[in-house]
Sequence to fold (232 residues):
Amino acid sequence: MLKTELLSKLEPFQKKIRHTFRDPMLLLQVFLHRSYLNEHRDFQLEHNERLEFLGDAVLELVVTEYLYLEYPNPEGELTNWRSALVKGETLSEVAHELGIEEYLLLSKGEAKSHGKARQLILANAFEALVGALYIDGGFKGAKSFIKRVLIVRLEEIFSKQLYIDPKSKLQELMQELRGQTPHYRVLKEVGPDHNKVFTVGVYVKGELLGKGEGASKNKAQQAAAKGALEAF
Fold:
């Protein structure tokens, strides 16, 4: 009964993404976080991490193909543009705009999460959605969706120079202003191995310039560098 009710609630979402799933249970799986199953062990459906794994690969291929075909720029520039498009912050913003947060199935504890932790959940759900669209509608369907909701953000990325690597930018700034290279230190690790969140601080001459969180040390470092740049 619960699954039937949940599926009926997903009908407006399918209209929003312009795809009616042949297998609606696949769409439901997109929103199913691992934590929910810890509290609902009789809920017979797999969580969304395998779909996320698939969606991540499809997403990178579609974005890479588009940039390669549309722009004659060198590899380094294309890589930076792709990174700006597929980074967790961008994906979580798109997921929020699509209303994915409204449908998430989370444990009571995870439902209270916010900030970087919630951003990570949203970004992962977006990747899971791409994976589900690929399975249900093929590469063409997934590609059309990605171009419509994500690749359209390229103009904003160009205009705001969001493709510039925060770590590189901070390093240049600190070498110019203080004659020092920033160094990064892991301040905290929380969560299980499959879903860790790292907190990293960036320092120059012992001074903490900024802190950031991420699903990997590199992402946390980028977030810390971004925070430091915003402080300047």
